[in-house]
Amino acid sequence: MIYLDNRQSEVEVDDDFNGTIRKVIDYALKEEGVNIPYEISIIYVDNETIRNINSDTRKIDKVTDVLSFPMLDYPKGQVYKNTYEDQSFHVVDLDDGYLVLGDIVLSLEKAKEQSEEYGHSYLRETCYLVIHSVLHLLGYDHMEEEEKGIMRKREETILSEFSIVR
Protein backbone atom coordinates (compact mmCIF):
# COMPACT_ATOMS: atom_id res chain seq x y z
CA MET A 1 0.00 0.00 0.00
CA ILE A 2 1.36 3.39 -0.97
CA TYR A 3 0.02 6.45 0.80
CA LEU A 4 0.52 9.76 -1.02
CA ASP A 5 -0.09 12.99 0.88
CA ASN A 6 0.28 16.32 -0.93
CA ARG A 7 1.03 19.04 1.64
CA GLN A 8 2.39 21.67 -0.75
CA SER A 9 1.02 24.08 -3.33
CA GLU A 10 4.19 25.04 -5.24
CA VAL A 11 3.99 22.28 -7.88
CA GLU A 12 0.85 20.78 -9.37
CA VAL A 13 0.23 17.11 -8.64
CA ASP A 14 -2.21 15.14 -10.77
CA ASP A 15 -3.43 11.55 -10.99
CA ASP A 16 -0.97 10.71 -13.79
CA PHE A 17 1.98 11.87 -11.69
CA ASN A 18 0.79 9.90 -8.65
CA GLY A 19 0.15 6.85 -10.84
CA THR A 20 3.71 6.94 -12.16
CA ILE A 21 5.13 7.30 -8.65
CA ARG A 22 3.09 4.28 -7.53
CA LYS A 23 4.22 2.16 -10.51
CA VAL A 24 7.88 3.04 -9.98
CA ILE A 25 7.72 2.19 -6.26
CA ASP A 26 5.89 -1.07 -6.85
CA TYR A 27 8.34 -2.13 -9.55
CA ALA A 28 11.38 -1.18 -7.46
CA LEU A 29 10.13 -3.16 -4.47
CA LYS A 30 9.36 -6.22 -6.54
CA GLU A 31 12.81 -6.01 -8.15
CA GLU A 32 14.32 -5.85 -4.67
CA GLY A 33 12.49 -8.99 -3.55
CA VAL A 34 9.67 -7.51 -1.48
CA ASN A 35 7.06 -10.17 -2.15
CA ILE A 36 4.67 -9.54 0.70
CA PRO A 37 2.19 -6.67 1.12
CA TYR A 38 4.00 -3.49 2.09
CA GLU A 39 3.27 0.00 3.27
CA ILE A 40 5.11 3.21 2.36
CA SER A 41 4.03 6.79 2.94
CA ILE A 42 5.16 9.65 0.72
CA ILE A 43 4.54 13.21 1.75
CA TYR A 44 4.98 15.93 -0.88
CA VAL A 45 6.17 19.18 0.71
CA ASP A 46 7.71 22.53 -0.24
CA ASN A 47 11.24 23.75 0.43
CA GLU A 48 10.46 25.49 3.70
CA THR A 49 8.76 22.43 5.16
CA ILE A 50 11.57 20.05 4.22
CA ARG A 51 14.13 22.52 5.59
CA ASN A 52 12.29 22.46 8.92
CA ILE A 53 12.09 18.66 8.97
CA ASN A 54 15.78 18.40 8.02
CA SER A 55 16.67 20.80 10.83
CA ASP A 56 14.53 18.98 13.39
CA THR A 57 15.58 15.43 12.51
CA ARG A 58 19.14 15.77 11.24
CA LYS A 59 20.19 19.10 12.75
CA ILE A 60 20.99 20.36 9.23
CA ASP A 61 19.26 23.71 8.72
CA LYS A 62 19.03 23.71 4.93
CA VAL A 63 16.71 22.68 2.14
CA THR A 64 17.17 19.17 0.82
CA ASP A 65 15.35 17.25 -1.90
CA VAL A 66 14.19 14.12 -0.10
CA LEU A 67 14.34 12.51 3.33
CA SER A 68 13.85 8.83 4.11
CA PHE A 69 12.64 7.49 7.43
CA PRO A 70 13.05 3.69 7.45
CA MET A 71 11.04 1.63 9.90
CA LEU A 72 13.32 -1.42 9.70
CA ASP A 73 16.90 -1.76 10.87
CA TYR A 74 19.41 -3.67 8.79
CA PRO A 75 22.91 -4.75 9.77
CA LYS A 76 25.54 -2.55 8.11
CA GLY A 77 25.94 -3.54 4.49
CA GLN A 78 22.73 -5.60 4.45
CA VAL A 79 19.66 -4.82 2.39
CA TYR A 80 16.21 -6.35 2.14
CA LYS A 81 16.41 -9.41 -0.13
CA ASN A 82 13.62 -11.87 0.60
CA THR A 83 14.66 -11.74 4.24
CA TYR A 84 11.06 -12.12 5.32
CA GLU A 85 11.09 -15.67 3.97
CA ASP A 86 14.28 -16.26 5.92
CA GLN A 87 12.36 -15.20 9.06
CA SER A 88 14.67 -12.26 9.67
CA PHE A 89 11.66 -10.04 10.36
CA HIS A 90 9.49 -10.59 13.38
CA VAL A 91 5.72 -10.32 13.54
CA VAL A 92 6.07 -6.96 15.29
CA ASP A 93 7.31 -5.52 11.97
CA LEU A 94 4.00 -6.33 10.29
CA ASP A 95 0.98 -4.05 10.67
CA ASP A 96 -2.26 -5.78 9.70
CA GLY A 97 -0.23 -8.08 7.46
CA TYR A 98 1.75 -5.25 5.82
CA LEU A 99 5.51 -4.83 6.01
CA VAL A 100 5.85 -1.19 7.07
CA LEU A 101 8.94 0.07 5.24
CA GLY A 102 8.80 3.72 6.26
CA ASP A 103 8.13 7.26 5.18
CA ILE A 104 9.52 9.48 2.44
CA VAL A 105 9.32 13.27 2.51
CA LEU A 106 9.85 14.77 -0.95
CA SER A 107 10.16 18.47 -1.75
CA LEU A 108 8.52 18.81 -5.15
CA GLU A 109 9.71 22.40 -5.25
CA LYS A 110 13.36 21.31 -4.86
CA ALA A 111 12.87 18.46 -7.37
CA LYS A 112 11.59 20.97 -9.93
CA GLU A 113 14.58 23.26 -9.30
CA GLN A 114 17.01 20.35 -9.64
CA SER A 115 15.42 19.07 -12.85
CA GLU A 116 16.06 22.48 -14.41
CA GLU A 117 19.58 22.64 -12.97
CA TYR A 118 20.49 19.15 -14.23
CA GLY A 119 18.75 19.59 -17.59
CA HIS A 120 16.37 16.66 -17.41
CA SER A 121 12.64 16.27 -16.90
CA TYR A 122 10.83 16.94 -13.67
CA LEU A 123 9.37 13.42 -13.87
CA ARG A 124 12.86 11.93 -14.12
CA GLU A 125 14.04 13.89 -11.11
CA THR A 126 11.07 12.99 -8.91
CA CYS A 127 11.17 9.31 -9.90
CA TYR A 128 14.91 9.20 -9.24
CA LEU A 129 14.45 10.75 -5.78
CA VAL A 130 11.63 8.36 -4.94
CA ILE A 131 13.64 5.30 -6.01
CA HIS A 132 16.65 6.63 -4.11
CA SER A 133 14.53 6.89 -0.98
CA VAL A 134 12.86 3.50 -1.47
CA LEU A 135 16.31 1.93 -1.65
CA HIS A 136 17.23 3.70 1.60
CA LEU A 137 14.10 2.20 3.19
CA LEU A 138 15.41 -1.20 2.10
CA GLY A 139 18.81 -0.66 3.72
CA TYR A 140 20.90 0.73 0.86
CA ASP A 141 23.36 3.50 1.66
CA HIS A 142 25.88 5.63 -0.22
CA MET A 143 28.31 6.78 2.45
CA GLU A 144 31.16 4.68 1.08
CA GLU A 145 32.20 4.61 -2.60
CA GLU A 146 31.44 0.91 -3.07
CA GLU A 147 27.96 1.27 -1.52
CA LYS A 148 27.34 4.38 -3.62
CA GLY A 149 28.19 2.52 -6.83
CA ILE A 150 25.84 -0.34 -5.99
CA MET A 151 23.02 2.02 -5.11
CA ARG A 152 23.46 4.20 -8.22
CA LYS A 153 23.43 1.13 -10.46
CA ARG A 154 20.16 -0.10 -8.90
CA GLU A 155 18.58 3.36 -9.30
CA GLU A 156 19.47 3.60 -12.97
CA THR A 157 18.44 0.01 -13.70
CA ILE A 158 15.01 0.60 -12.19
CA LEU A 159 14.55 3.95 -13.96
CA SER A 160 15.55 2.45 -17.30
CA GLU A 161 12.64 0.00 -17.05
CA PHE A 162 10.37 3.05 -17.41
CA SER A 163 12.55 4.69 -20.08
CA ILE A 164 13.30 7.43 -17.57
CA VAL A 165 16.93 8.23 -18.26
CA ARG A 166 19.22 11.23 -17.95
UniProtKB/TrEMBL annotation:
One Pfam assignment: YbeY
Keyword Protein transport: no
PROSITE patterns xrefs: UPF0054
Gene Ontology process terms (BP): rRNA processing
EC number(s) recorded for this UniProt protein: 3.1.-.-
Entry superkingdom: Bacteria
Compartments where found: Cytoplasm
Coiled-coil segments on the chain, per record: none
Residues that bind Zn(2+): 132, 136, 142
Gene Ontology molecular function: metalloendopeptidase activity; RNA endonuclease activity; zinc ion binding
Gene Ontology cellular component list: cytoplasm
Keywords: Cytoplasm, Endonuclease, Hydrolase, Metal-binding, Nuclease, Ribosome biogenesis, rRNA processing, Zinc
Cofactor note: Binds 1 zinc ion.
Chief place of localization: cytoplasm
InterPro entries on file: MetalPrtase_cat_dom_sf_prd, YbeY, YbeY_CS
Cofactor(s) the protein requires to work: Zn(2+)
Family under the similarity heading: Belongs to the endoribonuclease YbeY family.
Function description: Single strand-specific metallo-endoribonuclease involved in late-stage 70S ribosome quality control and in maturation of the 3' terminus of the 16S rRNA.
Protein name: Endoribonuclease YbeY
Organism the protein comes from: Clostridium cellulovorans (strain ATCC 35296 / DSM 3052 / OCM 3 / 743B)
Gene giving rise to this polypeptide: ybeY
